[in-house]
């Protein structure tokens, strides 16, 4: 049954919506925010019972001096479909996912976890310079990506390899980027794990924290205009992934505010995994997680169990529908998880948390084992299938790894092209200086590993000179 046609679908996870100036219909009052542009404050009358100041429309007057104390209110509930034993909580509603889809999702999660394990080991061997794992968060990235349209525009942080995998990024694509070889679509210009794909509508990852948030708000505003002027084309949303640590940056607040005031079709998906590198959430904020901030900005908000891939999928589907309703509006989803792995290969998380804490989460609950329990409960999976899948996937990852490792690095010319249409005079000076330096110290700079070697710079200079001599 579709979420869209069931009034009961999210009854356990009603999206938190701020009050609006107009009355809502009974069918949409829990999940939509009609934020009319026509609301205007007027002077208060002697008999008025509500505030008419422009800054707090629809607030009732009171003669009781009572501060709003967050600790006195219940925490925002966390929506889930499966319990930690893989059992469906509401059997009448089910999971909204076919058996074939569930198996495909499980295979992708296992593939992601195996790739993470092997690449982490490769970095420790010195074969990769850097890597970041997604252990404990596979359900968030793969589950949410599976509920989006392939044409939706996505902005990731740096722990969303599952989003790429689910949208069609191949093992070869991952390995080529990690090695920055000649097949890397980024031409070796980014550090490992900073993937990007124009074909999959995913913007290239940036190391700078939270910059993707305002980018998403701006892209969503552009999509709003496109959706408005191209009604025959299926509408799109902009989707932003970020960690709870990024929510401490000013970009987070600026992005949510502009998205709310402009009413843009944007999904802000927060991975709250408990740690911002070495900083636990107890030192990051005192409020009720990140979800509580959504309501403050006038944004429909939901908190979801990130270890439950079915809850993630259903929530994302409904959030996308809401984001496109009535011309567009932003939605915030806080996905709760636990970061099982280290922050990156540059981090030792046992310096700031107990090993027993991590092992307890691995044993007690994680998205892969929870989905596997559900599959086994339906006789769709067993130990033999598990061994076959893991053995085959490991071979596929290692094969892609070995092929990518043997390829040369991209041409050194890529350090200069694609900035201006033609080389500027200053760029030519830089190219000439680098070329002379590389030729003067060949033992210090091994150019054989780069496609075209030093000769690629000669070709670049010749092309620039030829273009300069072409008559206009």
UniProtKB/TrEMBL annotation:
Q: Which cofactor does it need?
A: thiamine diphosphate
- Identify the residues that the record assigns to the Dehydrogenase E1 component domain, covering every copy: 106-412
Under the GO molecular function aspect, what terms does this record hold?
branched-chain 2-oxo acid dehydrogenase activity; metal ion binding
Please name the Gene3D superfamilies in this protein's record: 3.40.50.970
Known SUPFAM superfamilies for this protein?
Answer: Thiamin diphosphate-binding fold (THDP-binding)
* Catalyses which reaction(s): N(6)-[(R)-lipoyl]-L-lysyl-[protein] + 3-methyl-2-oxobutanoate + H(+) = N(6)-[(R)-S(8)-2-methylpropanoyldihydrolipoyl]-L-lysyl-[protein] + CO2
Where does it sit, as one GO cellular component term? Answer: mitochondrial matrix
Q: What class of enzyme is it?
A: oxidoreductase
Has the keyword Coiled coil been applied to this entry?
A: no
The protein's matches in InterPro entries, at most eight in alphabetical order, are given as: Alpha-ketoacid_DH_E1_comp, DH_E1, THDP-binding
Q: Where in the cell is it found?
A: Mitochondrion matrix
Q: Which UniProt keywords apply?
A: Metal-binding, Mitochondrion, Oxidoreductase, Potassium, Thiamine pyrophosphate, Transit peptide
Q: Fetch the CDD domains from UniProt.
A: TPP_E1_PDC_ADC_BCADC (cd02000)
Q: EC?
A: 1.2.4.4
Q: Biological process GO terms, please?
A: branched-chain amino acid catabolic process
Function, as annotated: The branched-chain alpha-keto dehydrogenase complex catalyzes the overall conversion of alpha-keto acids to acyl-CoA and CO(2). It contains multiple copies of three enzymatic components: branched-chain alpha-keto acid decarboxylase (E1), lipoamide acyltransferase (E2) and lipoamide dehydrogenase (E3).
Report the family membership: Belongs to the BCKDHA family.
Identification of the protein by name: 2-oxoisovalerate dehydrogenase subunit alpha
Q: Which organism is it from?
A: Massariosphaeria phaeospora
């Amino acid at each position: 049954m579709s979420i869209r046609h069931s009034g009961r679908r999210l009854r356990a996870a009603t999206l938190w919506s701020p009050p609006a100036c107009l009355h809502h219909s009974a069918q949409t009052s829990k999940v939509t925010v009609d934020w009319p542009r026509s609301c205007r404050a007027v002077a208060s009358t002697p008999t008025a019972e509500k505030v008419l100041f422009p800054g707090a429309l629809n607030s009732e007057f009171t003669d009781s001096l009572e501060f709003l104390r967050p600790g006195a209110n219940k925490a925002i509930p966390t929506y889930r479909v499966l319990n930690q034993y893989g059992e469906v909580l509401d059997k009448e509603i089910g999971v909204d996912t076919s058996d074939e889809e569930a198996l495909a999702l499980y295979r992708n999660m296992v593939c992601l976890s195996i790739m993470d394990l092997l690449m982490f080991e490769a970095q420790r061997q010195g074969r990769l310079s850097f890597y970041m794992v997604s252990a404990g968060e596979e359900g968030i990235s793969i589950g949410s990506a599976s509920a989006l349209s392939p044409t939706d525009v996505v902005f990731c942080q740096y722990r969303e390899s599952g989003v790429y995998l689910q949208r069609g990024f191949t093992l070869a694509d991952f390995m080529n980027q990690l090695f920055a070889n000649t097949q890397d679509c980024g031409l070796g210009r980014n550090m490992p794990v900073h993937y990007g794909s124009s074909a999959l509508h995913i913007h290239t990852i940036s190391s700078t924290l939270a910059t993707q948030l305002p980018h998403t708000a701006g892209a969503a505003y552009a999509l709003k205009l496109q959706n408005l002027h191209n009604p025959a084309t299926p509408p799109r949303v902009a989707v932003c992934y970020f960690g709870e640590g990024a929510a401490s940056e000013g970009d987070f607040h600026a992005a949510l505010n502009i998205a709310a005031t402009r009413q843009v079709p944007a999904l802000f998906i927060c991975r709250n995994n408990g740690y911002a590198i070495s900083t636990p959430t107890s030192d990051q904020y005192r409020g009720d997680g990140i979800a509580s901030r959504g309501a403050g900005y006038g944004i429909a908000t939901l908190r979801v169990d990130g270890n439950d891939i079915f809850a993630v999928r259903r929530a994302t589907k409904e959030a996308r529908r809401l984001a496109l309703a009535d011309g567009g509006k932003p939605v915030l989803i806080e996905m709760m998880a636990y970061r099982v792995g280290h922050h990156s290969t540059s981090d030792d998380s046992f310096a700031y948390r107990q090993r027993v804490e991590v092992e307890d989460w691995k044993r007690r609950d994680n998205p892969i084992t929870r989905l596997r329990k559900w599959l086994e409960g339906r006789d769709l999976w067993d130990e033999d299938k598990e061994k076959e899948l893991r053995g085959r996937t490991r071979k596929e990852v290692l094969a892609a790894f070995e092929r990518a490792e043997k390829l040369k690095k991209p041409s050194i010319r890529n350090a200069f092209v694609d900035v201006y249409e033609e080389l500027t005079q200053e760029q030519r000076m830089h190219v000439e200086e680098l070329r002379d330096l590389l030729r003067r110290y060949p033992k210090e700079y091994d150019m054989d590993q780069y496609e075209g070697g030093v000769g690629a710079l000669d070709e670049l200079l010749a092309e620039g000179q030829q273009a300069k001599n072409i008559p206009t």
